[in-house]
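Notes from the 1:1 (GR / supervisor)

We went over the backlog. Supervisor wanted to see one worked example end to end before approving the batch request, so GR pasted a single chain during the call. The sequence is below; no edits were made to it. Supervisor asked that the structure be written out right there so they could see what the output format looks like.
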Amino acid sequence: MKSCPVNMKGADCIYEDKTDKKAGIDEILCTGCGICPKICPFDALTIINLPDTKGLEALHQYGLNGFRIFHLPLIQESAITGIVGRNGIGKSTVINVLSKTIRANFGKFDLSSISDEEYFSRLIQLFKGTALQNYFTKLSREEIRIAYKPQQIVSIPHVFKGTVNELLTRVCDDEERKKSMAEKLHVAHILDRDIAVLSGGELQRVALCSCLLKKDATLYIFDEVTNYLDIYERLNSASVIKEVVASNTALVVEHDLIVMDFLLDFLHIMYGQEGAYGMLTGVKSAKAGINDYLGGYSKEENVRFRDKAISFDKDSVSEDKRIDVFVSWGERKIEAGNFSVTVQDGDVKKGEIVGIIGRNALGKSLFLKSVAHAEGEFGMLAISYKEQLIERSDTLVLSELSQFPNYTDTFYQMYVLDPLNIAPLLEREISDLSGGELQRFAIARCLLQDAQIYVLDEPTAFLDIEDRLKVSKVLRNFVTLKGRSAFIVDHDLVFMDYLSDKLMVFEGKPGLEGFGLSPMSMRDGMNHFLKQLKITFRRDDGNKRPRINKLGSVKDQEQKKSGEYYYA
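Structure output shown during the call:
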């Protein structure tokens, strides 16, 4: 307050609210001079310039000087519309407003006293002359029946006690329909299991099943459908969604580019700044929308929301230059209770990243743990391991990372900490981090350790598209520049395609017996894997991203006939 030029002139740009014992900033009076963020000793202030809102007032705002959204997506009837964007810019907020999970507050913060009739009247007036006017008119008359699959599926056991069958019976009393959907989503064998003991993947499929079974639903809303699912279940779930909503309407938020490409008809790009604001572009075709998002520019709105376009051209070291074998191993059998996995012999070279793909419960993580715990041939090497499930604690991120000598090294600052955006997390406790923040912290902690081989189990979990690609470049640069090697398990095929030099494919019977093949070239490995999935890939002509060919299309049939499932 003492340093603000506007305050010095007698106006209350920065003021003290003595009732709430808080400070506030009048955003109309603020000139954006940048003095207060520089002198605030707690880094509590940030000045962010909002884009041109074309006269729109905030549709929903989280408190004074808080995060706000300005618009909602246009839902295309009898089609599947997606929303793509970074974490923390309001994707879940807009679908919560559309699904009546929360009320939009029009920037007024507290509308608890107004009736539903008045609330919908305000919404209808706000969107007068647009497709959303018709949507909210129908919603107010209960002519739209919504089936909603939330993002936070881990909260389901806290709000429902009972078996899977009891949960599904609450939304569908048609036994034949319930049985059919359970079989399609591969949950028929767990109908008698208690919700509290389900794995993440089982819980996700049960949540999808419950959503798709909702009686007489006319609008399906899915907030992230792929978390905890392997690539087989991701594509299967997407196929079931397409089948069920074929004659209805759906809205999807998702970060897996392959699934989005396979599932969507239309797309909105959501851009903005975490903790500040979220904006939506107009609706685009799925292909154009994904390409515009990766390009960082929307031509229709003349908005650039990223400095650089994202391209998938691989620039890895050629095979003939990676000749130094770090370690080779013989065929091994690993047992855990009644489960066993046999892994063929192989080797990993200096500067090489071996990607590991396959269904869940085939022993991929078991193999990684055998590597990480330095069994057999790996016992001679220093190995750093990022586990699939990351433990939380009350320790500060700074305290945890600064114990490694490499924390102050310029190389690690430039190639690990800065690209992973660790600085804003340093003064926070590990237990308070979001899923994506926790993942970035765990990857940084793994890479700060001095090791010859780095082992990472599902490093893309809870990351948005941009962070997944940043992580892939961090790992690629690190392994190449430091002359190290890595084993990486993940289910995001775009991530694995960009990052991996070789592939290990795991096969078998989930939960009973697994079989890991020797590391293969990317072409051989992906051909082998995609043939099992019965899908073919092509590259986008512009940004070279992997795309699924439409099943049964001319391109799909040609590639299957030639045996080239992978970028023929």
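Supervisor's comment: The chain has four domains: 5-39, 53-145+249-304, 319-520, 534-568.
Batch request approved.
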